[in-house]
Sequence to fold (266 residues):
Amino acid sequence: MFVIGERTNGMFTSIGDAILAKDPQPVRAMAEQQLGCGANALDINVGTRVPKAERPAVMQWLVATTREVTDICLAIDTPNLEVMRVGLEAACRKGTGMINSTTGQADKLAAFMKLAREFKARIIGLAIDENGVAATADAKVEIGMRVLAAALDVGLAADEVYLDPITLPLNCAQNAPGIMLETIRQFKMLSDPAPHVVIGLSNLSQGATERGLINRSFLVMAIQAGLDASIHDPLDEELMNAMITAEVLLNRMIYSDSYLKAYRQT
Ligand code: THG
Fold:
């Protein structure tokens, strides 16, 4: 599993405060903590408290500050093309970048795929188009197919594409998790080699009690369905243990009595 740490996000109070104060220390510390807990990439999101006009400069600062402590892949989390470009420039000076994300409308796809090629960045495509979030597995897969085709057209490989079925909160759409699982299975059958499949796991439990339990139960099911990347909190040790155990149970990792420790050492 490719774990994209979700915590460098202005939506979290401590990081949001640090961003507004331009205080680099909490940002660096959060990057190091996530990496220490097994993150393979970090999602970088300035949050909603930064005025729109300042977002390019703030993204530049947030990425550059994170880059001071790590060369790891940085996923630039913004729907805005200008913010994305500035973030990728800062991320790709040293190490790789990932576009989080494009949607399926033709004009957005064209612009973001051009950026992906320019920066040799991997790209996440959401199951959203001009009609909003696709509601059925068929509609999500149709958008996924369009994203994959656009990526192949600009010369990306299928395994540089990460399709995201869109995670809705369980407390507003109780049938959505089942639809996501079906979509994940179908995304993995779109091509051979297949695209990757990613989710923003924490969306699922927003507003619910038992957040941790809901997140880790679903993550295990999604891994079985073919999920191979997840944006989540690597500091949640029970979540990471459930993820590692799912990989052992699916025979993707060798069992030993110390498999949790072994995973963390590699
Ligand atoms: N897909 C893709 N990217 C994404 C998402 C996705 N990026 C953003 C988001 N969804 C994933 N990241 C988060 C980060 C935090 C939370 C949820 C998803 C979260 N935050 C707490 C809350 O809202 O309750 C904030 C807690 C606090 O204030 O401390 O749940 O789906 N491609």
